[in-house]
Request: fold
Amino acid sequence: MAKKEISYNDAIRQVEEILERLNNDEMDVDVLASEVKKAGELIELCKNKLRKAEEDVQKIIRDQE
Reply:
């Protein structure tokens, strides 16, 4: 089964939750590395979505000229 793609808002929310647990010392050391890795992957996903949106908007603007 294909992995469902997460939305930008859900990814941001998950990153914020990870950061909050880090800042509040709520994260167990046993999961620290995996959570930081997950946050990095989510941030990369968000960057890609923003780049794609920017490209799409620029294309629309060029097509309107």
